[in-house]
Amino acid sequence: MTIRRLISLIAITGLLAGATGEIVRADEPLTGEQIYQAQCARCHGKAGEGTEEEHPDPLVGDKPLNELAALIDKTMPEGAPEKLNAEESQRVAAYIYDAFYSPVAQARSRPARVELSRLTVRQYQNALTDLVGSFRKPSEWSLEPTAEHGLKAEYFKGRQPRGGERVIERIDPQVKFDFGEEAPGEGLEAHQYSISWEGSVFAPDTGDYEFTVRTEHAARLWVNDLRDPLIDAWVKSGSDTEYRQSIRLVGGRPYALRLEFSKAKQGVDDSDKNKDKPPPKVKASVALEWKLPHQPAEVIPARCLSPQTTSERFVMTTPFPPDDRSVGYERGTSISKAWDQATTDAAIETAVYVADRLDELVGIRQRERGMSGRRRRRDDETQSQPQISGSERDAKLRDFCRRFAERAFRRPLTDEQSRIYIEQQFARATTPDDAVKRVVLLVLKSPWFLYREVGATSGTEAEREKHTPDAYDVASRLSFGLWDSLPDDELLKAAADGQLATREQVSAQAERMLANLRTRAKLRQFFLQWLKIEQIPDMAKDPEHYPEFNEAVASDLRTSLDLFLQQTIWSEKSDFRELLLAEELPLNGRLAGLYGAQLPPDAPFEKVTLAGADRAGLLSHPYLLAAFAYTETTSPIHRGVFISRSLLGRVLKPPPVAVTPLAPDLHKDLTTRERVALQTNSKACLSCHAMINPLGFTLEHYDAIGRYRAEELGKPIDAKGQYLTRSGDTVQFAGVRDLAKFLADSDETHAAFVQQLFHYLVKQPIRAYGPHRLDELKAEFKRNEFNVQKLVATMVAGAAQD
Q1: Whether residue 726 sits in one domain with residue 683
Q2: Does a structural domain hold residue 348?
Q3: 757 shares a domain with 697
Q4: Reduced to 3 states, what is the DSSP secondary structure of residue 40?
Q5: Nearest 5°: CA angle at 717, between 711 and 718?
Q6: Radius of gyration over every alpha carbon of the chain, rounded to an integer in angstroms
Q7: CA 682 → CA 213, 655, 782, distances in Å?
Q8: pTM (2 decimals)?
Q9: Are 727 and 759 in a shared domain?
Q10: What is the distance between the alpha carbons of residues 413 and 477, in angstroms, rounded to a whole number?
Q11: What is the spatial distance between Cα 413 and Cα 129, in angstroms, rounded to a whole number?
């Protein structure tokens, strides 16, 4: 033994003796716990809980034991790593790992529990929209690939839609026409005609949508509310040709849409005075665009339009404080004054809306409310009920209030609830209409509406085993798991009929609900979060290096990614591995020209295999590659962090200090790979970048907009990389295809995906449902050939009954 090692051992022994009162023999090797208490506890706490002054974060993580030991050997104790040799580092690492660091140790020391939970903001918005919507005719939107998309178009002679003779009736895929000076079809006059487009528009995301009508002539647009136009340019003055207005929509639902257009002389019709003169030739065009939340404007595509009409929807506009996402997913486990006030304001907004449309929602013949002639005619044709007496109306209002409360509470009312929420409000109100307002306000402020997990449904696994959830709890968990909203009538009927008692019955309902638009909307949002692009990244690129890259290209790339996800997830196989291994990607003519595919410039989106360039699903999708890059150069660090966190589920702490990337201009002879390696070669960086960098380097064949390249600065691209697995094996990659094949087959990738998906759907920790739930779901995922749809149904059905 060297003198230095002997002195170190004596020092450790003295520290331990002082701390425990026990004498440790110098000839006995120190245990991992003894080394930890002597060398580590001062900074990290006696049980790894952290200390306020040195390291406030608890000593927990997901590094495998061998990686943890190597890190301790290189860097610990802080400032003096030479105090421990490799064997001692291994011993203290084993103690830390088993005592409090590993996920198993964390589960043992802090058992997870299903937490008392309120509705998240997204769930609250969806629930209000669907609650009010349940009193209207269900919407129609076909998910069949062969379904006809576009708007029902009617072309009329004359300046007024439906005021003249209808000459043409067809489906227009989108509204983007330049008629020039000619008539839009046979039988129409070039100087005067009108057109009406009607149907519905599907909103993929929740947020503010900006609609724009471009035309030199008269037009008006209705969205959702067919009583009052969103854009009214029917009587024009001046030379404006662009009209825009915003409206808030809840994602995953279709909305009524009608657009009317008229080409004619504006103002007084004096055509009779000038019938001997030929009408002047005037150009005409019309286009209907929208701007989705945080995206550039585009003509509304056919896939988001349907000729089927739909009922009006209530969309809440009250602002809410954001939900907590500190654990990686939205959850409603905290209550603030701001949130409580927002629920009050939203309840008032809903009550006002219901009162304004009360007879319609209740099913009583509507009063005349100054509606357009066409809307009034339609209502008169469809309303067959005669006017009813006051007592009959009062009974209908009471029945409406009962159904409103039961749908909001997701279960039948008890006698006590009926007395409090219905009878007392009608007794205290001056009029039945005021009673309805009181009921709506009281119901929407009730814990029975605002909370998802209440009473016996929360707690640890052991605590919940004492209480079996009733059928209505199961129905509610199913609907919020798959839709982030209330149960539908079929689900509530199944609960009432005792058809949610077995796993088979619950699974059958989950499989039925998968086909709903709301499930697709929720899963779409999950994948955007999983890919770290739910907030639209800044896609601006250096115009000197990428002059072809603009807002239109960025928008097309986003569409390409959406189509790729939709086509993969909602295919018959729904194979998760195809997300990583697919060689085809959807491109249109504009993107094809930029990325080297052979398509006509005006070609719509279709699947394309790019010749001479390796592609591997999401890993090499140009949108993600451009998002995880700088304006001028690639970013192996951003790309490596994405692979580490999202695909492999690794925990990465923020860098200890803010670091500015080395500017390419200062190292003109270095490739991006060489520059990144230079910047991150310090010991403080290598603890994370030893994993991040080699993963990110595998994508270096793709530039800052995702185009394939063979060299940089005249040097061949080096896309080799590696990864140290949790089991201690080092895997080598020659490029993106090798990485994709590893990830598609990796147990780590499967576990990370299953856990993140579970947390997003259920909004509770997976460990709260038992220590083996993750392994059980992984095994089921594998048995089902990695079918994402079946995984979703399995995990939501299982959580609904536990």
Answers
A1: yes
A2: yes
A3: no
A4: coil
A5: 170
A6: 32
A7: 56, 12, 40
A8: 0.86
A9: no
A10: 19
A11: 21
